[in-house]
Amino acid sequence: MNAVVSTISQLLPAEIIDTNAEQIALYSQDVFSVGPPICAVVRPRTIDEVQSLVRACLERGTPIVTRGGGMSYTSGYLATAPDSVLVDMTSMDAIVEVNLEDRYVTVEAGCSWQKLYEHLAPLGVRTPYWGTLSGRFATIGGGLSQNSIFWGSGQSGTAADNVLSVSVVTGKGELMETGSASQQHAAPFMRHFGPDLTGLFLGDCGALGIKVQATLPLVPVAGAKGYTSFAFHESGPMLRAMAQISRESLTTECFGFDPYLQQQRMKRASLAADAQQLSGVVQQESGIVNKIKQGAKIALSGRRFMDDVEWAMFTISEGRTEAEANHQAARIKTICAGEGGKELPDSIPRILAANPFGPVNNMVGAEGERWLPVHGLVPHSRGEAVLAALESVYERNRSTLDQFNIETGYLIAVVSEQITVLEPVFFWPDELNALHKHSLEADHLARLNQFDAVPDAWDAVYKIKSELVDVLSREGASHLQLGKAYHYHSALKTPALQLITGIKSALDPDGIMNPGALGLS
Ligand SMILES: Cc1cc2nc3c(=O)[nH]c(=O)nc-3n(C[C@H](O)[C@H](O)[C@H](O)COP(=O)(O)OP(=O)(O)OC[C@H]3O[C@@H](n4cnc5c(N)ncnc54)[C@H](O)[C@@H]3O)c2cc1C
Predict the structure, then answer these.
(1) 90 lines ligand 1 (CB under 6 A)
(2) Angstrom distances, CA of residue 214 to CA of 55, 189, 330, 413, 513
(3) Which residue of 55, 171, 299, 494 is most buried, as measured by CB atoms within 10 A?
(4) Is the CB of 516 within 6 Å of ligand 1?
(5) Does the Cβ of 79 fall within 6 Å of ligand 1?
(6) In a domain, 508, yes or no
């Protein structure tokens, strides 16, 4: 038996330690990269077991990488040294307390966004930010550790903007509770009690410890939703319309695709999937007349109206009443008309809202190609200029892109009132890895091409995405999912770098917590 596994086996029950070769291979890769093989997957069920594991690893100086749903692509949970231990948090997925009186929920970190959302919905509440499109598998611990956006982000910001307290096992094996819960006798009802210790652990990519629980605020579920879809001939008018919608805080979700991504999504969406999703829309509508009306409208409009669309933008708004949601939709229509947008049927955002945590089949292209998104968050005023800078990276790499049939697209979104998100996306024919095969729906996987491995194509994507990352850093973009892929350590001003380095050594003096994450060792 491997010496590390032998040490942890003395302190932890055998049934939570997995050294099966297939599992080791599966857990040593993320959506984009393969790391050095870990020596064991450990699946703790309690906070005590997490603490025992950290103490065992401290004895030998064994590095620990923490994994939630495994849905990321920036090497965040990949080891940097052989013989590291991976902690899979998904066995700790309980909803610990729903406090309707004080409006908060405490969950274990391995709980998925979908599980939390579905648990809260019948109670008429949800968290203000309520998850990623990968939330069928992606966990609350993963979302808070690397920060994330999508559901609710238009008005409520990022995952990290919506947390009251976290409980973290540090690199010393201690349990640290934050927010109001950091003092004796208090409940985790409030984020602030002195300096923001909760914020310290958000976006840390697991470099400062293992999150075991989190407490999030609760808000009432909206009484009504409004939807719009628009087509634009060019990116500029779409970006300007989205920025204005964001400044006026008109949507909970506002996102757009370039023509290539638009085409990919239309290819992927089959008629069968539409029919299945339609039942979600029909269930969500209130009143039988509305159900029939919306069902018929979507069935009739189909997807043909998207055939000639260039840049496409979709919005979802929420109000306490229909009148409020309609008022927001009306204002969005005025803004888009002012930028030359052409209104389309609203079925696509309506279908998405009715099925918020669908299968993660989007982690590969429509024909079974590999997929890699990169992203930068910029102030609205810089959106168009930074998009042009990214485009120039593609242009200077045109011959390499053509050589390996690498296609590119963009997803655009807005967050709160300040931020435009630019997400360049790569697709290229290459072999799928074990994580893709494990995560896709079996019947979807069976329909896809099985491309051969093209290591030179992967290298080319890696090189071009690194150039995009450099451009984004020079443009002062911010990032979610920093992992081991974006500039953080190398981009910080000296006082901030000294502070974060000092915090890392205070919480993790032996450097066993996810070495390399955020560029810290
Ligand atoms: C199909 C698809 C759709 C996606 N949609 C979105 C989207 O809408 N918005 C978005 O922002 N991203 C999206 N992503 C990216 C990704 O899924 C999210 O960033 C998500 O938050 C990752 O969560 P996870 O639980 O899978 O984390 P993992 O990938 O398992 O881990 C992410 C990071 O967090 C750390 N970590 C995980 N759990 C803990 C813990 N308990 N304690 C300490 N550290 C921990 C890991 O070490 C790693 O550094 C998508 C990805 C896919 C494949």
Answers:
(1) no
(2) 22, 11, 38, 26, 19
(3) 171
(4) no
(5) no
(6) no
Of 354, 383, 398, the one marking the end of a domain is 354
Q: Identify the domain boundary among 305, 325, 354.
A: 354
Give the Å distance between the CA of 206 and the centre of ligand 1. 11
Residue 501 lies in a domain: no
- Quick check: CB of 134 below 6 Å from ligand 1? yes
Please tell me whether residues 45 and 160 are part of one structural domain: no
pLDDT of amino acid 272: 46
Phi, psi dihedral angles at 85 (to 5 degrees): -105, 135
Q: 277 and 349, same structural domain?
A: yes
Ligand 1 atom closest to the Cα of residue 145 is 34
443-462 burial, b at 16+ Cβ within 10 Å, e below that, comes to ebbeebeebeebeebbebbe
Take atom 3 of ligand 1 and give the residue whose Cα is closest. Answer: 134
CA distances from 164 to 148, 178, 234, 261, 409 (A): 16, 8, 41, 36, 36
**Residue 521's pLDDT is what?**
85
Instruction: Please tell me the distance between residue 324's alpha carbon and the centre of ligand 1 in angstroms.
Output: 33
What is the reported pLDDT for 2?
86
ipTM: 0.99
Predicted confidence at residue 294, as pLDDT, reads: 60
Number of structural domains (the chain) is 4
Domain with 258 in it: what CATH number?
A: 3.30.70.3450
Averaged pLDDT, groups of 10, the chain, 521 residues long: 89 96 97 97 98 95 97 98 96 98 98 98 98 98 98 98 98 98 95 98 98 98 95 96 98 94 70 54 57 56 64 96 95 98 94 95 95 98 98 97 97 98 98 97 95 98 98 98 96 98 98 97 85
* Residue 304 lies inside a defined structural domain of this protein: yes
> Residue 232's pLDDT is what?
96
Domain that holds residue 273: 224-354
- Residue 292, pLDDT score: 54
- Same domain, yes or no, for 142 and 184? yes
Please say whether the beta carbons of 8 and 17 come within 8 A: yes
Nearest CA to ligand 1 atom 15: 72
Q: b/e per residue, 247-272, with b = 16+ CB within 10 A?
A: eeebbbbbbbbbbebbbbbbeebeee
- On whether both 317 and 251 belong to a single domain, the answer is yes
E strands present in 90-221: 95-99, 104-108, 125-126, 165-169, 175-177, 210-217, 219-220
Residue 516 lies in a domain: no
pLDDT at 295: 55
